[in-house]
Design a protein that fits this description.
Radius of gyration: 18 Å
Strand content: 15-25%
Shape: globular
Mean pLDDT: 78
Number of strands: 8
Amino acid sequence: VNDKSATRGAYIKRRWFCGAFLSAISFLLISGCSGGGNPIEILSSCLPSIPEAVVETLPSKPSKVDVFLDTSVSSTNFGKTNLDTAYRDVLGFLREEADSSAEVKLCGFAKNVAPLTTAQLNAAARGQSAICQRCGFSETRLDSLLKQISVNDNAPLSIVVTDLWLDNNDLLDSRSLSLSRPLRDIMSSGKAVGIIGIRAPYSSEVYDVPVAGSTKTIRSGIVSERPFFILLIGKPSEVLGFKDMLYRDVLASDSGRENY
């Protein structure tokens, strides 16, 4: 998502590399490109051209919204803090939207996707674990969720709140390939994908951190911040519209200074 307001406070501090999703985006951009030559020229030739209609799209408020909250332990651990945190503010904003409109549907996802109540959303904001038994909490099947969104041509604006970590015990393909397929289908259908990264306090364990040839868990208290992410998937105008709402009502103060 790119507009003039995005030039304010563009810096996002990141402590951990969420390689799977970002690698999938890179794979979509550079697959099929020839090697060699000037790197800038290669990158320019790989990037898809942007249709004029997309560039001139004006923001619009979405009529229907599906919210998908990552209920895995690594995500809900963001709520385990006494500090002011964007994670809790974002969930509070989404709860208000759901309370005020029947057109906003709440769902949780981890191993499975299942309906979520506002009480369960509140529990996630407070850092409680295993808030949705039907969703699960020990895996994060982000690939399955994106595939579900991609096959529904009539899907409303989808908002995914997650730490962007893929953990699927049934996965055979690489993480990048498993994510790039539904992303390609989403974008080829004319929908937009917006990615917002927000730093937030974090003091719990960090699971599956890559090390040489393996992964390990970083124990509680070592990490002080991690980014969480909001994916906006839908019509370009609605992606822009919801991004503006989120920035105005949560991420920026009355003076326009970024809160986070």
